Model the fold of this input.
Amino acid sequence: MPMPQKTVWGQGRLLIGADFNFRVEGYTDARLRAAVGRLRGRIALQTGLPLLADATGPLQLVVSCRGAGPKNPTLGEDESYALDVSTSGARLSAPTVTGALRGMATFAQLVSADGKSYSAPAVHIEDRPRFPWRGLMLDCGRHWMPVDVVERNLEAMAAVKLNVFHWHLTEDQGFRVESKRFPRLQEKGSDGQYYTQDDIRRVVAFARDRGIRVVPEFDMPGHATSWFAGYPELASAPGPYGVERSFGIFPPAMDPSSERVYSFLDKFFGEMAGLFPDRYVHIGGDEVLETQWKANPKIQAFSAAHGIKDSRGLQAYFNKRVQELLARRGKKVMGWAEIQDPGLPRDTVLQSWRGQDSLADSVKKGFLGVLSFDYYLNYGKPASFHYRNDPLSGAAAELDAGEKARVIGGEACMWTEFVSAQTVDSRIWPRAAAIAERLWSPAGVTDEDSMYARLDAVSRGLDWTGVRHRSYERPALDRLARAPAREALQVLADALEVDRIDLLRAQHFTTRSPRNRLLDAIPPESPALRRLEASVRALSSARPSPEDAAGVRRTLVAWRDNDARLAPALRDNFLLAEDAPLSANLSKAGALGLEALDFIEEGQAPPAGWRDRSGAELAELDKPYAEMTLGAARVARLLVERAARP
Amino acid sequence: MPMPQKTVWGQGRLLIGADFNFRVEGYTDARLRAAVGRLRGRIALQTGLPLLADATGPLQLVVSCRGAGPKNPTLGEDESYALDVSTSGARLSAPTVTGALRGMATFAQLVSADGKSYSAPAVHIEDRPRFPWRGLMLDCGRHWMPVDVVERNLEAMAAVKLNVFHWHLTEDQGFRVESKRFPRLQEKGSDGQYYTQDDIRRVVAFARDRGIRVVPEFDMPGHATSWFAGYPELASAPGPYGVERSFGIFPPAMDPSSERVYSFLDKFFGEMAGLFPDRYVHIGGDEVLETQWKANPKIQAFSAAHGIKDSRGLQAYFNKRVQELLARRGKKVMGWAEIQDPGLPRDTVLQSWRGQDSLADSVKKGFLGVLSFDYYLNYGKPASFHYRNDPLSGAAAELDAGEKARVIGGEACMWTEFVSAQTVDSRIWPRAAAIAERLWSPAGVTDEDSMYARLDAVSRGLDWTGVRHRSYERPALDRLARAPAREALQVLADALEVDRIDLLRAQHFTTRSPRNRLLDAIPPESPALRRLEASVRALSSARPSPEDAAGVRRTLVAWRDNDARLAPALRDNFLLAEDAPLSANLSKAGALGLEALDFIEEGQAPPAGWRDRSGAELAELDKPYAEMTLGAARVARLLVERAARP
Done:
């Protein structure tokens, strides 16, 4: 995962034993050698085999590159590779080091235990990405993400061939980059939580090693309160300003009529251009309120003098000025779709968060488009939801070939209002891997069962990259309950799913709210529930297996009996008290599911009205509490439907 | 844990909320400030509270030191502290920074959820260690342990107040330190796996920050094959030599008759003295074979010329020479008990791995003694076994006060024949915490139930220090089986215990053997079994709880039914096939346990002969397979005994 463009399975398997080794042939450089070393380490972790650097067994993977490719990862660079695995060895060929990196990620996924040993299946793969821009946006403004968190997520990105790290570095809630030129930016704007310039260089090098571009975002003219904490003169209304602690859309905005602002930004971008080698700089541009602009007579006079009709025009003027500053530094502009304006050059990348309509509109106007609509990981949607969302669907499906070519990809977005450095991995992974497949693999790869089966494997594999999306659950649940309630809490946790946290309903949360609720411990989507659902569906198949029925019954009994074990522990626990209705509802769902299973197994038709009554009751149980929903109710409903079927 | 010397509980609790803060009063330095920052971070992780550095709430912990104490952690330095917690705040007072570090470790453990909020109980604690030498020896020679593994274990050591990191750096299987003077040591002796001098400095500084001494061990004259790979002239027989891959005791030994050896060691120690600030250097001295010495006429002639009677005398001569070299560098000697000899100075520390007899003998002769006998973590013994082992028990209990004072502590030993960097955390923790308590707390603290209850909490808490003793289990089991067998594998894993891997029976293992068996995934001691045992014992209490009985039945049923689910997956899996007998036996133990539980619950006496028959069968089920034993059989036996009781 992502599924390659072309896969031809061969006969037999290549043994991966303790003396399997890795060899570079032809072009080589430090980046390639380091990558081969990481591949060796990664497979050693996956398998438990030692795989020492000096192994000399007859079986090996030969990595053969034609050249380095661009010095830094670059939009549109050649990422193709070919991989041949046979029983006598494996060979990876790529025109560039980046292509070799992609092929190595594929090879790591091919290695598995085949019953007798570790091995990789014989196969011929030819592969290249469908879209050249496959990103992950991480909001480090609202919640601080230390360098090690960033790095382990870059490692995981590389494992699924994502190639753009969109680093959201400034927000109302925090300014996260050290500026030596304007030190009050981080001094007053970050609560001490910012990346030093050494950190930035380290992250950029780390990403480069993995074939990942780093596109920094400096959000302006709105979402910029943290800039004003140290430099209130940049704002459109007098200060003082302080870092924002709550969430939402706030009035402070840069003053588009002030030459001091442009002079400041010019120097600032000069400094940043030296840190970020990528050609693109993201200037944000989203959700600008006109409050300050309307209230400022100087800005209104400026508009009148320049024939600017409205705030939209003011922002267009601002964007154009900023774009010109960046162009002088050799940089192109990316921004949220709102910045679209005829005045901007056509190589501007517009990031659509409002849907394929706005994406289609952008590329029709000649801009480059990247889709983020419905790739928001913070909405708690299942992987299948994101997977179904093709950049070239909807209005974009109607584009002509030239326009479609300007849809250059997509970006998963991780906004962090309700996510801390501790919980962020589990919000990103494994779902971002499904988006990675959507953006890399052919459009026709859409089988969701296959996707989920492979996603499970990828999710386990990502454990070895260092992301804690799975390992965090255990200590986070341990924090909430001790044995014996801990076991019952696990049963409940496995039956829950994260509901979208609505910004409006969640106004009581701030940047300083603890992220230690049950909600924060569970994965957005429960793998246990998904497996159960598959077993329930299998009951309806031509030959239902007794093992499926037994497994389903075991789970339903556990649900039914769980509240009796868990409820007392919930009552005495300030962190879990809010979850009591979910626990009670789980037991009800278990009881209803058991009724249904009895009817199914006895081949008996339920009495009249039973189906509607049970269905209604289960719909009621599905109501969200504490920002979670009871996925178990959905599965019980499946059983009720199955029992009621004639 | 470790239990303080004096604890007086007060009334009420100190609230720990998001605005709780930490303040240093009086003496301060970088080490103390860093430690306070780590404490804040640690409690933030434990609780999920943000606990920002600039919090200004009214409730705080004030840390008050009288002075820095010695520049580097030093044997016998003052580690005492006093900690007062009341509803209005907490105050930690210590004469030294090291004392403050110990007190902060205590404070972190006091914080827990009390039903309404996070808080710490009101308490007055006065504390100091019983023994000044509380160590962990880590063998980085047989298996390489990267710097991050070492560092996270140092972090965990600090959490339980261990204060000596005994770094076993050289072995037949690897020479792990960079020498700039003699670079062939690491070039030929390490397979590229060694600590650079920068690494060493970093680890030493990391340890110092946590109040931990670093005592390096350079094992000689035996266990030194890896030295000879690059410098065969140091050996007592001509080479060539290569790094050893298998395990055992090997003939190569340094030539005690060669002045070149002493001149080499003199320069080598000169270099090492600059890296390791501690006053003590460990020179090993264990398990020296006389094979090479006997076969070398030059060495025999040397012995005759110097009136040396035997190989023991030769080693004494060697040790004395080495000790003199070290003394010139300002270093004192530590060694395994074999090096004991009247020629050595009385501040030599002898590490007893053969029992309290040899420990008593060493201190009677005037040396300093450290106990490691029965603190070998690689033996797979339960925490209670180590906990019962007091340095001043057995022969050492008979010592007079002056002799007892020369028993300065103990060291947990982690030998790594069968342990890799991936699995080592789970072999060390949490059991080393029980040893830490034995060495810190008053001798009278011996309640094992209390120890285990606290050990469970400490084990969970150690998750937040970064050691992976618990988080490793999940990916390691994932590697072995997929759903649905994965669930059944967990049931089996929870019912198993690690048997001691006997070096003689395990001659087929080498440094390159994969550590990816079920054995490597499970903890040495199963917390699930321990909880079950407690429930079984509760059945015999005056008022057995229905919840205990229900929990026991649930587990026994799961055992009984488990093999049917698991056996097919074991057959098709080269990594698990060896575990098939254990799985079959678990189901038998479950069935026998259920029989017993039925008798107990029905208040019915079992038929004649049942008890003996069942007991014999369970004893048979307890046999080790694949280096594991079925702890479940022990618990089932408890039930049989209970059922048979009139």
